[in-house]
Write a structure and sequence with these properties.
Length: 146
């Protein structure tokens, strides 16, 4: 069964929160209340340390777990930057959702690597090296220069 998990950066301190997105919550009178800031999702249920705490997160940092673990056992999320070893070369790519493929893919300016991760999943040649929020400079590295 596929694990459904999201992450986002907290608005108050910038730390990562891992859990589930929420669209609605319950106020002290047990009435439903929307947690929104404009039209952006701003809350997640934080499941770290087995706690369920509602945390406000920056909507533009929310990314989904892509059901893939890199060669070091690190969960890969949308927005991660990965190093892919392929044919004696190393490539840097970002994990993104592709509407045409209807799947998460690894993409850089040179192309697409491992659509739906089937090839990558079997090869054990992928390593998370950062993400576009904390390490945007990593995507500036040219293929073969790492």
């Amino acid at each position: 069964m596929r694990e459904i998990l999201f992450r986002g950066k907290r608005k108050d301190n910038g730390e990562w929160v891992y859990g589930d997105l929420i669209h609605n919550g319950v106020d002290e009178n047990n009435g439903l209340v929307e947690y929104k800031d404009g039209d952006e999702f701003i809350c997640m249920v934080d499941i770290q340390d087995k706690l369920c705490i509602i945390r406000k997160v920056k909507a533009d940092t929310v990314g989904q777990y892509v059901n893939f673990i890199d060669k070091n056992g690190v969960k890969v999320f949308e927005g991660d930057i990965v190093k892919i070893m392929c044919g004696g070369m190393e490539y840097i790519a970002q994990i993104v959702w592709d509407n045409f493929e209807h799947a998460f893919i690894a993409r850089n300016k040179s192309g697409v690597y491992g659509s739906s991760f089937e090839y990558l999943r079997k090869s054990h040649l992928v390593k998370v090296i950062g993400n576009v929020y904390d390490n945007p400079h990593l995507m500036e590295v040219q293929d073969g220069e790492n």
